[in-house]
Amino acid sequence: MSKSTQTSQNTTTTKRRPAAGKTRRSRKDADLPGDAQQHELIGTATNQTLAGNPLVSVRAADLASSAGYLLKAVGKSPLKAGYHLGGYLKEMGAIVRGKSSIAPDPKDKRFADPAWQSNFLLRGLLQSYLAGQSEFNRFIESADLPPLEKSRAQFVASLLADAVAPSNSPLTNPTALRKLVDTGGMSLARGIRQFTHDMLNNRGLPAQVDSTPFKVGENIATAKGEVVYRNKMFELLQFAPTTPNMFARPLVMSPPQINKYYAIDLSPEKSLIKWVQDSGVNLFVISWRNPTAKHREWSLSDYALCLDQAVDVARQITGSPDVNMWGSCSGGITLAAYLGWLAARGEGHKVANTCWAVCVLDMPSALGDTTLGLFTTPSALRAAKASSRHKGVLSGQDMARMFAWMRPNDLIWNYWVNNYLLGNKPPAFDILAWNNDTTRLPAQLHADYLDLVQQNPYSNPGTLSIAGESIDMTQVQVGAYVIGGTTDHITPWQGCYGTARLFGEDATFVLSNAGHLQSLVNPPGNPKSYFYSAPANADDPETWLQNAGERCEGSWWPHWREWIQQRSGESQTAPKKLGSRKYPPLCPAPGLYVMER
To answer: Please, which residues have CB within 8 angstroms of residue 495's CB and are 6 or more apart in sequence?
Structure first.
C-alpha cells in the first residue's frame, strides 16, 4: 500500500515537516474536574505509562551508588569545582543587584505562574535555583570522569535539583499560597489528608490517579465477547462481530505481560478492539493471568507456547488454516519467540501476517541513550535477577515506583504540587487508571527478559532457545506492519524501525506523532494526529523518515484497517455464536483473570 493512500475521510495527506507529538484529549477528558494543573497532569502522565520496559529493574542501590560519582567528580577536579563555585557566586551577586538575566525555560510549567517574575523575592529565589543548577551541570560536564560515570552523576544531580525546586515548597509556591488564602486554609488541610493517606497506602509516593470512577467490565473493558479458552496462564477472549460479514482469517493479539490487556478497550470511542470488530475482523485477545510467587517458574518458553495454544484454538473455532497476529511491546517480544519456534519446527505456515505496536526486538536500541540504559550493567542485571528470584515475582508496583524516579518531575513532583500543595485530587482518567492496575512478572520470565538484553537473540541467531528449539529470526517469513511513536521514550521509534527491518524491505513501517501508549490508543478524530508510512527499505531510520514523503493527516487506524483487511482472507457470513462445540464460551469478556490483583 502506498504511503500516501487515502484510507478514509479521517486520513488526508499533506507535505509538512515532522514535529513532536501532542497528547490526545477528547472533549470528555477536557471536562474533568479541576483546573489547568490537572489537565497538564493528564497530558504529561499519559506519555509516561508503565506499558513499557520490563527488561530492566533498576534498584534504589543503583541510584544511590551513582551519588558517589558526584563526590568523585569533586575529588578528581577540585580546581574546576572551585571555578564553577566562583561562577555561581558571581551570578548570585548579579541576582542580588537585580541585574541577572537568567530565566527558566518557557516550557517549564513549574514556573509558569506570573508571580515568579513579578515578585522580587520569588524571582531572586528562582534565579538562585537556576544558577546553582546550571553551574552544577556545567561542572559535572567538565569533570574528569569516564562517560558512564559522568552520565550517572548528571542523572543524580538532576534528581537533587528537581527535589529542591522552589515550586515544591508550600512556602515558596505562589500558586499554592494563593489557593491557601482563597480557600481559607482548606487546600492545606486536604493536602495534609492526602499526604497522610499516601504515606500509609502508597508507600510514600503521591497518587497519580483517582481510579474509583472506573470499573472493569462496567465502564471500561466493555467490548462484547466471550472467554472461549482458559488454562493456568491465560484466558482467550473472542470478541463478538458487529458487522454482517467477517473475514475468514482471524487476528490473535498478544498483549504485554506487565499490564492488563484492556488498554485497547478503555472506552468505546477509543477502543482498538471495537475498531477491529467494526472492521469485520474475527478478533481473539489473550488475557494473561496475574502471576504470584507460586508461578515463579513460568518462563518465556511457557508464554510462547501459550501463544501456540491460542492460535490453535482460534484456528479450530474459525476453521481457518492460519491466523494473523499482533504483538504489543513485551507481548511482541513473546510473539517473536513464538514465531522463531514455529519456524524452527517447520510450522511457520500457522501465522500469515503480523502487526507490531511499539515493540523493539533489537534490545540495545530499546535502551540506547535512555536513563535505564545508564544502569544496564552486568552487575545490575545479576542483582535484578536475584531480587525477583528471591521474591518469586517482579512487582508492577515496584516497577512503577522506580520508573517514577526515572522521570520525577513528571511522575512525582507534579503530583506533589497538585495533591499536597494545592490540595487537589489526582485526576480521574481511564488511561491512568489502567496504568495503575499493575501486574507482576514471574521471576523466570523476568530473568529471561534480562538475558535478552545481553544476548540480543533476535539479531543474533542461535543465542536463544524456546522449548528446545534454537531461534533464528531470519527463518521467519511473515508480512509485517510495525508502529512506532515519535515521542516514545520507552520503545524509541528508531528501535521499532529496527523491528520492521527484521522482516524485510516489504514490511510496512508507520511512525505516529505520539508517545508510547498514545501511539496505540490513537482513534480517528484528533485534528493534531498524523503519521508517516512507507516500506522499511532504508538501512537506517533517519534515512527512512527523510524518504517517507508526504505525511498522512489523522490516525493510522484507517490505514491499518485497509492493510489487515487485505490480508484477512475472504469475506463470509459472521457467526451467530462465539466459540465452538470443542471450545464453548466459559464466561463473558473481560473474563476472570483481568480482575485478579
So the answer is: 360, 362, 365, 366, 368, 484
What grid cell was written down for 578? 462465539
In this prediction, residue 444 carries a pLDDT of: 96
DSSP designation for 167: G
- d(CA 389, CA 443) in angstroms, rounded, equals 5
**Pairing state between β 251-254 and 283-288:** parallel
Q: How far is CA 335 from the centre of its chain?
A: 18
* Residue 329 annotated among the catalytic residues of the structure: yes
Q: Render pLDDT for 94-153 as a digit per residue (tens, 0 to 9).
A: 999 999 999 999 989 999 999 999 999 999 999 999 999 999 999 999 988 888 888 888
Instruction: Give the DSSP letter string of 444-488.
Output: HHHHHHHHHHHH-TTTSTTS-EETTEE--GGG---EEEEEEETT-
pLDDT score for 53? 52
Q: What is the pLDDT of residue 127?
A: 97
3-class SS of residue 353: strand
| Max avg pLDDT among 1-15, 379-393, 446-460 | 446-460
Marked catalytic residue, from 306, 329, 359, 496: 329
Q: Which contacts qualify for 177-183: CB closer than 8 Å, 24 or more apart?
A: 178/115, 179/422, 179/423, 183/423
Contacts of residue 17, defined as CB under 8 A and 6 or more positions apart, other chains included, come to none
Residue 505 has phi, psi (to 5 degrees) of -70, -15
* 172: DSSP letter: T
8 Å CB contact between 95 and 103: no
Q: Which of 101, 107, 87 lies closest to 43 in space, CA to CA?
A: 107
The residues spanned by each domain of the chain are 60-167, 225-595
Distance CA 414, CA 379 (A): 33
- Cα–Cα distance between 63 and 144 in angstroms, integer? 20
| Torsion 589-591-594-595 (CA) sign | positive
With CA atoms as reference, report the closest residue to 108 among 124, 129, 89: 129
Q: Which cell goes with 348? A: 511457520
The residue written with cell numbers 458487522 in the block is 243
Helix (H, G, I), strand (E, B) or coil at 25: coil
Count the residues in the chain: 597
Neighbours of 163 (CB within 10 A): 13
CATH number of the 225-595 domain: 3.40.50.1820
Q: Which helix (H) or strand (E) holds 139?
A: helix 120-142
Report how far residue 175's alpha carbon sits from residue 170's, in angstroms, rounded to the nearest whole number: 9
* Ramachandran assignment for 417, one of left (phi > 0), alpha (psi -120 to 50 degrees), beta (any other): alpha
